[in-house]
Specification:
By secondary structure, the protein is an alpha+beta fold. The chain contains 7 helices and 8 strands. A 5-stranded antiparallel sheet has the order 4-3-2-1-5. Strands 6-8-7 form a 3-stranded antiparallel sheet, covered by helices on one side.
């Protein structure tokens, strides 16, 4: 009796051991094959006029599908009945779907980003309280690189439900400045200084032309608005250059910059 049991166990071990060895080999070979396939696909476009954003997103989908196929194949090699496996996957799918509602919304958000294209790779955007350059659009998350080289990961669901400001859509942007000067300043002279400093900078666009006007009279100062158009890539360079140049010009021309002050009048009885 004992000998029969041992023989059955030996047969079972040999049978299952062979399946386990085959499953391990398939796992190793399959993993290597998937990496090679993805390496080739990364170097080639999946369509004739494919956008890099679409290419990256499709690669993530293909990679996930290949790994799912590999897992199903390994389970089949181990001898798990497919009918039972399908039933188990269906039951688990319901539970996982309820537990991963956020992830599913992120997946849906990723698909919506792909369809409606509010931004693409290398765009500079502001969303969910962060701003940076889009370096990756994944199935579930989008990754931004901030100006100080930090990596920010934002769920796609949050991006689709939030306001997204894309600074890279248009080739040009408008710079808006406000300058306060003291009451009594020559309005025409201030306007002339602002327009001269804006016009002589090489990064300032001639069309539309720079605009400068008195825009506000506050309690302590006159406020002038200067509007200048610039190519998006040169936005911050022109911003800092004009601020420094106009500040130096005001100092050279003796333009008074006002400070908040309170006048106290004392009356003797």
């Amino acid at each position: 009796m004992l000998e029969t049991i041992l023989n059955k166990l030996a047969e079972l071990c040999v049978s299952f051991g062979g399946k386990l060895l085959a499953a391990i080999l398939v796992l190793i070979i399959g993993t290597i094959a998937i990496k090679l396939v993805m390496k080739v696909l990364r170097k080639k476009k999946l369509g004739k006029h494919e956008d890099p954003t679409v290419h990256r997103f499709l690669l993530n989908i293909i990679k996930t599908a290949l790994y799912i196929l590999l897992v199903v194949t390994i389970i089949a090699i181990l001898g798990v009945p497919m009918a039972s496996m399908v039933a188990a996957i269906a039951s688990a799918g319901v539970a996982i779907g309820l537990a991963l509602q956020g992830s599913l919304s992120n997946l849906a958000g990723g698909i919506m980003i792909l369809i409606f294209r509010p931004f693409k790779l290398d765009d500079f955007i502001e969303a969910s309280g962060f701003s940076g350059t889009v370096v990756d659009i994944g199935i579930f998350y989008t990754t931004l690189r901030t100006a100080d080289n930090k990596s920010i990961t934002i769920p796609n669901g949050a991006l689709m439900n939030d306001k997204v400001i894309n600074y890279s859509v248009h080739k040009t942007r408008r710079l808006d400045f406000s300058f306060n000067v003291a009451y009594g300043s020559d309005v025409d002279k201030i306007k002339s200084i602002l327009l001269e400093e804006a016009a002589k900078h090489e990064l300032t666009l001639k069309d539309p032309a720079p605009f400068a006007r008195l825009s506000k009279q506050s309690d302590h100062s006159l406020t002038f608005t200067l509007r200048v158009w610039v190519e998006s890539a040169n936005y911050w360079t022109l911003n800092f250059d004009l601020l420094e140049a106009i500040n130096a010009r005001f100092a050279a021309e003796g333009i008074e910059i006002p400070f908040n002050q309170i006048d106290v009048h004392v009356k003797n009885k």
